[in-house]
Amino acid sequence: MLDGADTPTPERSVDENNTDVIQGTLDMLILKTLSLQPLHGFGIARRIEQISRDVFKVNPGSLLTALQRLERAGWLDSEWRQTENARRAKYYSLTRTGRKQLEAETADWNRRVSAVARLLKAEG
Amino acid sequence: MNPWRQLSRGVRSLFDRSTTDAEISDEVQHYLDQATAAHLARGLSEAEARRAARLEVGGITVVREQVRGYGWENAVDAAVADMRYAVRRLRATPGFTTIAVLTLALGIGATTAIWSAVDSILFRPLPYPGADRIATVWDHGIDGSRLDVTFGTLREIEARTRSFEAMAAMKAWQPTMTGPAEPERLDGQRVSASYFRAFGVRPILGRDFLRSEDRAGAPNVVIVSNALWERRFGGDPALIGRSIVLNGDPFVVIGVMPKTFVSAIAPSAQIWTPLDYDMSEDRAWGHHLRMVARIRPGMRIEDAAREVNSVARNPVAEFPRQPWAALEDGLVISALQEDLTRGVRPALLAILGAVTLVLLIVCVNVTNLLLARGAERRGEFAVRTALGASRARLVRQLLTESLLIAVAGGAIGMAVATGGVGAIVRLGPPELPRVAAVSVDVKAFAFGLAVTTLIGVAFGTIPAIQAVRGDPSEDLQRASRRTTGGLRRTRGALVVAEVALALLLLVSSGLLLRSIERLFGVRSGFDASGLLTMQVAAVGHRFDADGATYRFFEQALDAVRRVPGVQSAALTSQLPLSGDVELYGVHFKPAVANDPGEVRGSFRYGVTPGYFETMRIPVRRGRSLEEGDRAGAPLVAVISESMAKRRLPGIDPIGQRLDIGDGPLYTVVGVVADVKQESLALSESDAVYTTMAQWHYTDNVMSLVVRARGDAAALAPTIREAIWSVDKDQPIVRVATMDALLASSAASRRFAVTLFEAFALAALVLAAAGIYGVLSGSVVERTREMGVRAALGATHRDIVSLVLRQGLRLTAYGVVLGLAAAMVATQALVTLLFGVSRLDPVTYLGVVALLAVTAVVACAVPAWRAARVDPVTTLRAD
Q: How far apart, in whole angstroms, are the C-alpha atoms of residue A8 and residue A62?
């Protein structure tokens, strides 16, 4: 919308400690993670890092902003729940349109990946 | 995207920022806690875990701001903040804000009002289908003026041309309607059967006239206007086919016109009847018909004019012509709209020009104000830039301020425009056609608003751009007080332009004002004060008997003379300055040597004895018309002074014999002073007077003139009662004092003058404000210089004259420029001037003097302020 949150903020691009999530894939990774079970922000970040075997580090600012955006887009629902240690945490879950979006993004991603793979395999 | 969610979440966080903020903060905190817990679980100590988590998450505030920054509501938030700040800034400088807003309001409002009027009068098509194909046709007068056509001409042109769908002639008709309700004199027209077809309009009820109804001896039929149908007949559809009584005769109503139909040529006409002319009648060759024609689709007015003129120049035996309607010079064809607006076009265009000048001055003034304000605020912007504000942020801030001023100016301007349009409709002169249709033109308003807003945006943001481009440290050091030389020169040039424009407007309105003075200085030829006038008609069959009309008028006049407060009273067939125009050909018999003949005919007055005395028209030679000049007595006439001089050069007019319109011969017994009949501005026409009793027709509509001892207007009701005591069925109309007629005869000029005066005054004030603004700005900038000068021994007088010189130099440049412009531009005013040259030195000198005085006053305050500068304080301050 007016303030594009998709544009990389300076903090993210200069952060050299982490291997950042590949540009534009964060949304898909969040959707995929939440398709398995509802999670809170830290849970999502940790899950992405675990499954990617720490290849990806998730920047909390980017993650929380992305969650806002995806929620506004109608792909996620959110809910405040009590956690085991009696703290309030915001849990996100995938909606039906979110699931469709995930399918579309996955298909699109696969198409791109195979195209890139073909290009790399091609020999002069 | 889910727009509904976008909207609802955005609105929620807009209105409940604290909850949203708390949620974001909770979420970020939770994230940090979780991260800390994870590190603790890996075996780090509490402090180490917290530190590691901080490193991983980054600054809590940064994250919070990042998350918070998402969403459209943030842009709204920023705009609201800008707006708040702008309002605060504008309120901090109420002088600037008020002047800027009012200046804009004046410019936008005045331009909108005038453009609305001019557009709907001059340019908007007339409300008829194919209005651009409606034309009027005129004969050529000897002096080149437009002359009404004769019925003979209409008949021939109609038969011999192919360019027209419909062609119609018309003349005024004012029947008196009698019946169950009180008698009413109606405004109407006698028209050719194809009259409404020429306008492309048909009756909504009943039918149009048939050709067979438009000939002598045809049955009496009328078509009425929608307004008359509603007012007098309750909008009853059964009126069609019924008879109404007009001038004592039954007329069958055959049609009702649509509500939207107004005859552009006779806007007050409410009833129409066929012309009923016949070539066998004398009147068929009288120049007294107006002609309107509808050109065929696809043909241009030029094509039609060519065909008409070729017909006019090639007479055929089948259509014999009279010598005075021989059409040797062809005919004049012009578009109906152009024809209607011919009289007012120069005045309206001049007024439009004047308001455009005002708008220009407003633009210059606002530019000047904004530049001055920008210069004053360089320090502020330097500070903000130094604190990290981006150029976009500053521009947005200034844009908000400019737009705020424009919106406020526009809102007040709309009010000014609405009021102005109302005033034009109410105060507009009666000659202004279609004035009732004038309404605020949204396009004009949008244009004015757009121009001024653009200027505001363009010049309002200059300071921000300069602030970012320049080196802020320099501005910071200079303590924001000084402008660069370039800017000062620009502002000086703007003031020069303002003064020049103001001078142009002042000269124009001065010339118009002098014209009006001259006009009212013109002698009307009679004494207007204390005169009451009204029109009395004698209609109906009771006046069919020989002399009945004359007897009614005699008795009515006697009754009026008996009313207390009436000093004297008389009747006349046409009343000066009332719009009456009745001209006859007058021929001396035997012919007089060196008689140059007539230009356009002589005004013919049938009056009762005592008319000259009541009007106080002085008798120059011979005698006045007397009671003895009755029917049966020798026929006598009195002529006007200029007629005697022009047509009887060096000959004693007394005893000369003349005919009036080929009638019997009258002997001239007296000469009276010239009287202005049509308007004060027109030069004297020839005039001939006979008594009503000796006139060879019977006038059945006469104007009563009453000289009152006291208040003339107050006598009106008693006089009306006196006339009705003779015959209660006779309508009395056009009741007005002579003073009122005199004023309204100059209404059109007065209207133009009033507007010009208003604009010129506004221009003067704006120019003065401009001079004052630039000078006081420059004095503030030069405070230190003044201080140094004072310290070095300059006296108060020296400093005052220094500032005065600066202001007056700018004024002088403006005056020179303005004078040059005025000498060229006043050409556009020539048709509006009367008795004054457009280069009238008195006006020019007066205006220059006025501007000089205004400039001195505008310079005085800054000069005084400069003189009061205390050298010690200023020198210490920097």
A: 9
Both structure tokens of B226: 């929608």
Q: Using one digit for the tens of pLDDT, what is the confidence trace for B104-143?
A: 898 889 989 998 888 888 888 888 999 999 999 999 876 6
Provide the phi-psi class of B318: left if phi over 0, else alpha when psi is between -120 and 50, else beta.
alpha
A→B contacts (Cβ < 8 Å), by residue, are: 1-3, 5, 9, 11, 15, 17, 40-43, 45-46, 59-62, 64-65, 68-69, 71-74, 87-90, 97
Element spanning B310, H or E:
helix B301-313
Verify whether the Cβ–Cβ distance B5 to A46 is below 8 Å: no
Helix axes B391-427, B94-118, angle to 10 degrees: 50
State the nearest Cα–Cα gap between B23 and chain A, in angstroms: 9
Return the domain boundaries, chain B: 3-71, 145-328, 345-520+747-877, 540-730
Nearest CA among B687, B703, B701, B692 for reference residue B737: B703
Contacts A9 to B, Cβ<8 Å: 66
Give the range among A55-64, A89-98, B424-433, B458-467 with minimum mean pLDDT: B458-467
Query: Of A2-6, B234-238, B678-682, B792-796, which gets the smallest average pLDDT?
Result: A2-6
Lookup: tokens for B756: 């010009």
Using CA atoms, how far apart are residues B235 and A72, in angstroms rounded to an integer? 62
Q: Determine whether the interchain pair B30/A41 forms a contact, defined as Cβ–Cβ distance below 8 Å.
A: yes
Bridge partners, B36 (sequence order): none
Confidence at residue B75, expressed as pLDDT on a 0 to 100 scale: 79
Instruction: Give B755's contacts (C-beta < 8 A, 6+ positions apart).
Output: B114, B351, B354, B355
For the stretch B787-817, what's the b/e string if a residue is b when 16 or more beta carbons lie within 10 angstroms of its beta carbon? bebbeeebeeeebbebbbebbbebbbbbbeb
Q: Per-residue pLDDT averaged across A3-28, rounded?
A: 53
Q: Who has greater pLDDT, B467 or B779?
A: B779
Continuous segment of H or E residues that includes residue B190: strand B188-191
**A61: how many CB neighbours lie within 10 A of its CB?**
24
Q: Give me the pLDDT at residue B476, please.
A: 58
Domains of chain A, CATH where assigned: 14-121 (1.10.10.10)
The pTM is what?
0.74
- Helix axes B716-726 and B548-561, enclosed angle (nearest 10): 140
What is the ipTM, given to two decimal places? 0.79
